[in-house]
Amino acid sequence: MTRLVSIDGAIFRPEEAKVSVYDRGFLYGDSVFETIRTYGGKPFALEDHLARLERSAERIAISLPVPREELGREVTALIQAAREAPEGGGAAGAAARGVVESYVRVMLTRGSGPLGLDPALAGAPLRVILVEPLKPLPAALYRDGISVVTTRTQRAGDAAPGAKVSNYLESLLALRDARAAGAHEALILDPSGHVVEGTTSNVFLVERRPATHESPEDPGHLLITPPKEAGILVGITRGHVIDVAAELGLPSCCEPVTMSRLLSAEEVFITSSLREIVPVVRVDAHVVGAGVPGPKTRALHAAFRKKVGLGGAPLPWESP
Ligand SMILES: Cc1ncc(COP(=O)(O)O)c(C=O)c1O
């Protein structure tokens, strides 16, 4: 497997792939994108990602330059071309080294034009697809869980809430601070102090339900995640996690999450396409629950892996 790039449908090696310095994605962050991964060499939830890309583009008044189906075919063809590329030993060599899955980024910019902020100056939208071998997260992060820090921000994306716009500067700076503090992810708090999401992930809590007349002894658990209205990116993994929770009989609801709610949760985890489900065992200086990945997080992740076709494979925390 190798890295390949598709620009407006034409495939290039990375060193030959060029876009204009007048492209508005470069000049103004005037673009939207999607991050996708493959399972078994096939892009997972491709339809959902392309639908979200189109919605994000609509939110900032960029129209898809080709029908969604054609963009999907370009993504699939590029993944296939990267898998078959001779560099690095080809697909057989890659499989032998265990590198069989792809990390895919699909970008759509407003295109290029003369300098000036006015979007009317842009020519035709530009589409770029990047494919490279997926590097899975180290097993230790799944096995032991991660630390996160909380950061209060005003986010750049708030001009187009819910859209996956390319300007991640505030999140990038929050992530830099998190990494400097030895944490894996930063959880973004809105100006009123509510937990929104991670810099590139959604966040979930497992809470013990209050006792009711129907279940006075074991009230069971509840899965909580901030609602769309909190200003989150509605994650595709988030949706799958809510579905598998229902299949496992774990009720879920989308509700605002305050810091005190986050800190009193029995389990916390983050979700994203590339990382699936990662247990959080520390938030700032606070230890979450028992300080180890919890049973509900594990059960949800195992069910999620079945859903993506990896039912028989070792679980991420079981890998050496
Ligand atoms: C801000 C933000 N929230 C959530 C997510 C998770 O979304 P998904 O599960 O669709 O990858 C991402 C993914 O990149 C993100 O950037």
UniProtKB/TrEMBL annotation:
GO molecular function, one term: L-valine-2-oxoglutarate transaminase activity
Name of the protein described by the UniProt record: branched-chain-amino-acid transaminase
Obligatory cofactor(s): pyridoxal 5'-phosphate
Entry keyword set: Aminotransferase, Pyridoxal phosphate, Transferase
Positions in coiled-coil regions: none
One Pfam family it belongs to: Aminotran_4
Entry's Gene Ontology BP terms: amino acid biosynthetic process; carboxylic acid biosynthetic process
Catalytic activity line of the entry: L-leucine + 2-oxoglutarate = 4-methyl-2-oxopentanoate + L-glutamate; L-isoleucine + 2-oxoglutarate = (S)-3-methyl-2-oxopentanoate + L-glutamate; L-valine + 2-oxoglutarate = 3-methyl-2-oxobutanoate + L-glutamate
Homology family: Belongs to the class-IV pyridoxal-phosphate-dependent aminotransferase family.
Keyword Cell cycle among record annotations: no
Domain of life of the native organism: Bacteria
Organism placement in taxonomy: Bacteria, Pseudomonadati, Myxococcota, Polyangia, Polyangiales
Organism of origin: Sorangium cellulosum
EC number: 2.6.1.42
InterPro entries cross-referenced by the UniProt entry: Aminotrans_IV, Aminotransferase-like, BCAT-like_C, BCAT-like_N, Class-IV_PLP-Dep_Aminotrnsfr
